[in-house]
Design goal:
This is HupE/UreJ family protein. InterPro entries: HupE_UreJ. With 201 residues, the protein is mainly alpha-helical. It has one domain. It is 79% helix and 0% strand. Helix 1 runs antiparallel to helix 7, helix 3 runs antiparallel to helix 4 and helix 4 runs parallel beside helix 6.
Length: 201
């Protein structure tokens, strides 16, 4: 847990550096780049659906993990496929059922958290990575057309990593304690997904 806390602090510090540098940018192109990075970094925090999915993936990974070897499979799979989806969205690729799949991802992740279902690392990465593509596409659509779109995608992936780490830290703290809080959290995320599914159906 001390390791995760230290990692979270270092990651947040590294994230703050580009934001601090924006006050000293002297070239207009660099200013656009930094602004794009900051915009992308903040993007995952602007939607409860994306935040719930990303934190939920980290939470499930820690709760269901049987050791350090498979702790990061799901978060890394999610982040990698989020990047793929974002690039597809930026390119204007027409991907069907984006919103329903985002809602379905919340239902699935919520159930995974509530049940603490253990999956082999590559399978866990594949399951959440499939849903992550749709989250990425949605972000890519929203960021497309901006001059700093690629920088924004980098910021978005970094923010995703931090949300995963937050979920992992919470899950690691809870894994040896009562099973009730994780079940409540998982059920809440799943119900959120059901509510979104009824809206987009």
């Amino acid at each position: 847990m001390r390791f995760l806390t230290r990692s979270t602090f270092l990651a947040m510090l590294a994230t703050a550096l580009p934001l601090a540098a924006s006050a000293h940018v002297g070239v207009d192109g660099a200013a656009h780049h930094t602004a794009g990075f900051a915009q992308g970094f903040l993007h995952p925090f602007t939607g409860m659906d994306h935040m719930a999915a990303m934190v939920g993936v980290g939470l499930w990974s820690a709760l269901a993990s049987r050791g350090a070897r498979d702790l990061f499979w799901a978060p890394l799979g999610f982040a990698a496929m989020l990047l793929v989806g974002a690039l597809l969205g930026l390119a204007g690729a027409q991907v069907p059922a984006v919103e329903p799949m985002i809602a379905a991802s919340l239902l699935a992740v919520g159930l995974l958290v509530a049940t603490r279902l253990h999956l082999p690392g590559p399978m866990a990465a594949a399951v959440v990575g499939t849903f992550a593509v749709f989250h990425g596409v949605a972000h890519g659509y929203e960021l497309s057309g901006d001059s700093g779109a690629l920088a924004a995608v980098c910021g978005m992936v970094l923010a995703t990593g931090l949300l995963h780490i937050a979920g992992i830290a919470a899950g690691w703290a809870l894994r040896r304690r009562s099973t009730l809080p994780p079940r409540i959290a998982g059920a809440a995320v799943a119900l959120f997904g059901v509510a979104l599914l009824t809206q987009v159906a």
